[in-house]
Specification:
Blueprint: H1 3-26, H2 36-82
Helix pairs in contact: 1-2
Length: about 80
Amino acid sequence: MEDFQKRLLMEQSELKDKCDKLFAFINSDAANEVSPIHLDLLESQASAMVTYLHILTIRIKLLSAVDDADKEEAESQSEQEEE
C-alpha cells in the first residue's frame, strides 16, 4: 500500500470520527444553546463533511481495486514467464 493510500485511510478515519462527534452535538440538548444560524451552519458543515467522507471512501475503493488488478496482472505475468 502506497503512503498516500495510508494517508487517505487515516483521513477517512479521522473525518468519520469528526462527523460522529458533530452529529452527536447537533442531536444533543447542547445544540439548543447555539443560535439558530450557527446550528444551520453546523448542519451544512455536517452535510459537506459527509459528502467528503463519501468521496474519500470511493477513492479508497477504487485504489484498492487497481491494486488488486495490478497484483493479478503481476501474478499472471509471473506464471507465463514460468511456462
